[in-house]
Amino acid sequence: MLRDKNNLVRNYVASIPFDWRLYRQDIRGSIAHAKMLAKQEIIADSDAQAIIDGLSSIRQEIEQREFQFKPELEDIHMNIEARLFEKIGDVAGKLHTARSRNDQVALDLRLFVKQEILSAGDGLKALQHSLAELAEPNKDVIMPGYTHLQQAQPILLAHHLLAYFEMFQRDKERFYDCLKHTDILPLGSGALAGVPYPIDRQFVAQELGFNKVSANSLDAVSDRDFVIEFESSAALTMMHLSRLAEEIILWSSAEFGFIEIDKSYTTGSSIMPQKKNPDIAELARGKTGRVYGNLMAILTTMKALPLAYNRDMQEDKEGLFDTVDTLHSSLKVFAEMVKTIKVNTNGIHDAIKRDYMLATDLADYLVRKGLPFREAHGVTAKLSEYAITKDRNFRELSLDEYHSFSPLFDQDVYNITLESSVASRNSIGGTSPQQVAAALTRAKRLLENEGGKQTS
To answer: pTM value?
Structure first.
């Protein structure tokens, strides 16, 4: 601690302006530690009880906003410990037996990240629910599928929405995988070398709900991989949110006109009263950058640190907290916004009045007639160029015009429609109504499955 230093230095090293958020985890860990010390007869039962009662009282003070955080005490650990001394006297000094602030903060962070992983899973699940609920009534709506933002092939709108369901499913599974690596108790590692007391780490792990205890004390106090994994998972989730945001922005524009966002998730213009700006989606797209930045910051902080703990690692928290807040708020607002989206089927229909997206189907038609695909592709490319030049749809071309490109075309070429194109994509994962119905059933099953884990 730096009580005797000047204010400039004191304020520079203090972490209490942000790590106060770990008070629940810090107190919870300290209570479990006190119980273990008493169980192992390292301290008396009466002392442990006094410590536990004091810590419980401090937690109540903090939650009732009666606690005064002091920057000169640097961090959440020392602020709570100093207040514990004020409440119960010298007995408070026994709490720090067999631990260090190094393994204490590692514990607090792991408890915090564990909880935020579960919250992220819940947020993703809520957004998946909203996507599935929007897909269900629109499972028969045909829309343009795009590559390079150019109309490519017809697909079902529900198929497009469920693509994001799959992205968020992977995100959820990444977070749950991160949970496995976070669910390890570091307390008992001391400053770096372990502790010279007969502690029971398994007891503390059980008290705090950890599945395992750390295997190496040096690694335990200097490891922030779990923070990096969380922020990496969050960055991927925000990337997926940003992609969805971009489509919402495009689809709600006058040029597309596919959807309408509820006015509660848009803003007006200061001078153009007709506008409904998709600010929520735009902000999510922008906030993705700050989450990326937080990930790069912690990676850079950790990249050259020798074992074990170094003060650089104090920089692990602000970015983490910002990522947690950004991720949770973004997931929550998107889950609610998607619920309000209205699909403009007329706008979508207008976008597919031209049937040039059927070019691939025409090539496949020629393949079924015996023409090699590369040749069929070349024929259809010329046919497409001809139709576009003439400003006519494929269905408006005469059979004689078709024959001028290939004698294999017959009257049944007119059976190729947007509906037949979609229906023909009936392989697993395709856009046919049958496959989309199966995908919706699978989505519902995944959401009903506790924890949202993948099922076969």
So the answer is: 0.92
Cα 447 vs. chain centroid, distance in angstroms?
Answer: 16
Q: Who's near 347: CB < 8 A, 6+ residues apart?
A: 256, 257, 258
- At 403 the pLDDT is 96
In the numeric block, the tokens 């503390």 are attached to: 204
d(CA 447, CA 172): 11
Q: Which residue from 391, 379, 382, 401 is spatially nearest to 355, judged by alpha carbons?
A: 391
Look at the block and give the residue holding tokens 């390079």: 148
Query: Cβ-count burial of 271 within 10 angstroms (0-12 exposed, 13-18 middle, 19+ buried)?
Result: exposed
CA distance 6 to 173: 48
Residue 189, pLDDT > 90, answer yes
- The rounded distance, in Å, linking the Cα atoms of 249 and 178 is 32
Distances (CA, A) of 40 to 27, 31, 33, 98, 195: 20, 14, 11, 12, 14
- Percent of the chain clearing pLDDT 90 (strictly above): 89
> Average pLDDT, stretch 263-289?
84
Q: Which residue carries 């198929």 as its tokens?
A: 159
Residues in contact with 340: Cβ distance below 8 Å, sequence separation at least 6, in sequence order: 261, 262, 264, 265
| Cis? peptide before 351, omega within 30° of 0 | no
For 210-268, write each residue's pLDDT tens digit: 999 999 999 999 999 999 999 999 999 999 999 999 999 999 999 999 999 999 998 76
Q: Of 240, 237, 238, 258, whose CA–CA distance to 248 is shortest?
A: 258
CB of 267 within 8 A of CB of 358?
no
Residue in this structure with the two tokens 């030049």, named with its chain if needed: 389
Instruction: Return the closest-CA partner of residue 160 out of 235, 236, 251.
Output: 251
Give backbone dihedrals phi and psi of 212, rounded to 5 degrees, phi first. -140, 165
Can you tell me the distance from the alpha carbon of 148 to that of 151, in angstroms, rounded to the nearest whole number? Answer: 8
Which residues form the catalytic set?
A: 148, 269
Whether 36 and 49 have beta carbons less than 8 Å apart is answered as no
C-alpha span between 223 and 113 (Å, rounded): 13
Give yes or no for a contact between 242 and 229, defined as CB atoms under 8 angstroms apart. no
Strand pairing of 212-213 and 184-185?
parallel
How many C-beta neighbours within 10 Å does residue 85 have?
Answer: 14
SS3 of residue 4 by DSSP: coil
Residue 147: burial class (beta carbons within 10 Å; 0-12, 13-18, 19+)? exposed
170 backbone dihedrals φ, ψ, rounded to 5°: -65, -40
Strands (E), 224-364: 259-260, 342-343
Helix axes 76-88, 23-39, angle to 10 degrees: 60
